[in-house]
Design goal:
With 514 residues, this protein is α+β, with helices and mostly antiparallel strands. The strands form 9 sheets. The protein has a 5-stranded mixed β-sheet with strand order 6-10-9-8-7, with no helix packed on it. A 4-stranded antiparallel β-sheet has the order 2-3-4-5, with no helix packed on it. Strands 11-12-13-14 form a 4-stranded antiparallel β-sheet, with no helix packed on it. A hairpin with a 2-residue loop joins strand 21 and strand 22. Helix 1 packs antiparallel against helix 8 and helix 6 crosses helix 9. It is elongated.
């Protein structure tokens, strides 16, 4: 008879402890969790044009933000016949130089009121070379017949052209739209693409293991569970849900205090109105948003801790995850969101290679079957950028995966040893048969025909006013806009977010089933 009050008291204390832990974890972290949710949602949609062309004055921002915006070159192509003539491009537009990158001139966009395009691909015409450049942008295909000084729209309006390459013939191009679909077109009919349908790679062509680093990054940016749109939707639900949870939790805690204050000052709200507001807030906060966003919020919190500590990159790269534990997206049942680069082969219309973040795949039968390319006994881990110059094919590395070259069709792939060339954003021809590897948009590493490094060139960047909102949001999300060691505070908030999830689910379960 005496144990029942003790058990009831113990149960009550446990319930009050969870309630207090949930309340104080929420109140301490509410503001920053709301900021993380809002900025995370926007950063997952970095393709939105306004984030690159709407800017903030450098005078009101710290060096940690302005330093990011000073590197605008993501693509660099050099005219091999006139090496002083170069074209640079990126998310902020296109520029041209005729003095070896000592000074840059912004390309004039003809026929566009804003005169701004995001550039993802620059490819000389397979027949006319630098007399006609093809430009893949966020608004279709454009051409330049004056070496990059002006752009004229060619076709495929409103398509996001993320890759271009010469085709099997001299009047043909291959390309990728939104990293998901491959098209083929004749250069004299650029507005009439032929969309190609390919089979997905067979299971034996897929990697048997991936690095933990690859998985962490993909999960955190909305690529790591299912097809691109589904994974991104889950991240959006989690990001916006985090904002809504923080706000609704603060309102659920604050409204009763506001009502007591108002009652002391002769203001009164009907009891039924109060009850309806609190019931609505509780249902919104817990059963609706909390349950829907719980799983993606949990993996975003965990991957956020790992993603924020770049010093863990080498260790994360060494940890391998076997195929049986890969999320569905790595089964590559469709190409959606996977196509980083594409390359054709002269005189071989049935052959095509596609670069992805988990390797390079080649088909010799018009996309019906695929083979994973290997360098010796190891498969090529990633292919972010592909370039073909004559018979030679070059692969730009990604995340320490290595850069490669192949001297001719059917030959072995050679891996470059230089770490700067192994993180190449773009690959271009230089004079005397040399190849330039664009490293971090700032340095061009030069190699000879055999892949031996012969020097480096420091690039002068095009001068652009203001800092794009993307960089401001990026530094706000990781906290470096305030303090260079903010990552430790982000770790704390990630732990608090996990605590809120666990205690919130316990509270909901007890209310649901009591």
């Amino acid at each position: 008879m005496e144990r029942k009050p003790v058990r009831k008291r113990t149960r009550w204390y446990r319930r009050m402890t969870i309630l207090k832990l949930h309340k104080w974890a929420g109140l301490i972290s509410a503001v920053w969790l709301c900021v993380l949710g809002a900025t995370g949602f926007l950063l997952d949609h970095k393709e939105w044009r306004w984030m690159w062309f709407s800017t903030v004055s450098e005078r009101v921002l710290p060096e940690s933000v302005t330093s990011l915006s000073r590197t605008v070159i993501q693509i660099l192509q050099v005219n091999p016949d006139r090496p002083m003539h170069q074209v640079a491009a990126g998310s902020r537009g296109l520029w041209v130089t005729e003095d070896g990158a000592k000074s840059w001139q912004r390309t004039r966009v003809i026929g566009d009121e804003g005169g701004q395009v995001q550039v993802f691909a620059v490819e000389p015409d397979p027949e006319h070379g630098w007399n006609r450049l093809w430009i893949g942008t966020d608004d279709g295909l454009w051409t330049s017949e004056d070496g990059g000084k002006t752009l004229v729209k060619a076709g495929m309006e409103r398509q996001r052209i993320t890759a271009l390459t010469a085709g099997a013939s001299h009047a043909e191009l291959y390309g990728a739209a939104d990293r998901s679909r491959i098209f083929q077109l004749r250069t004299d009919e650029p507005d009439r693409p032929d969309w190609l349908r390919f089979e997905a790679p067979a299971a034996d062509a897929l990697p048997r293991q991936i690095s933990l680093r690859r998985l962490v990054i993909d999960l955190h940016v909305g690529n790591g569970l299912f097809a691109r749109n589904t994974s991104l939707l889950l991240n959006d639900i989690a990001s916006l849900g985090l904002c809504a949870l923080a706000l609704s939790g603060v309102f659920y805690w604050g409204f009763p205090k506001y009502w007591r204050h108002r009652r002391r000052n002769c203001g009164q709200i009907r009891v039924e109105t109060k009850r309806k507001i609190l019931i609505w807030l509780f249902r919104l906060h817990g059963p609706l948003i909390g349950l829907c966003a719980a799983v993606p919020l949990l993996y975003l919190a965990i991957t956020g801790i790992l993603f924020g500590h770049r010093e863990l990159g080498d260790w994360l790269g060494r940890v391998r995850i076997p195929a049986m534990f890969h999320p569905p997206v790595y089964h590559l049942n469709a190409w959606d969101g996977w196509i980083e680069a594409v390359i054709g082969y002269p005189g071989q219309p049935e052959k095509l290679s596609i670069g992805t973040r988990i390797g390079l795949f080649t088909s010799k039968d018009e996309g019906r079957t695929w083979l994973a390319e290997q360098a010796g006994t190891e498969r090529i881990p990633a292919a972010r950028r592909l370039r073909r110059f004559g018979e030679r094919v070059y692969i730009g590395g990604w995340m320490g995966g290595g850069s490669y070259l192949r001297q001719q069709d059917g030959a072995e792939w050679l891996k470059l040893s230089d770490r700067h060339a192994n993180m190449a954003r773009d690959i271009t021809r230089l004079e005397d048969g040399q190849i330039g590897w664009l490293h971090q948009g700032k340095t061009v590493v030069m190699t000879d025909r055999s892949g031996q490094v012969s020097g480096q060139i420091e690039l002068t960047q095009p001068m652009e006013d203001g800092v794009p909102w993307y960089y401001v949001l990026n530094r706000l999300h990781d906290g470096m806009i305030f303090w260079e060691h903010w990552k430790w505070l982000n770790d704390l908030f990630a732990v608090l977010a996990t605590t809120l999830l666990v205690t919130g689910l316990i509270r909901w379960w007890r209310v649901k089933w009591r």
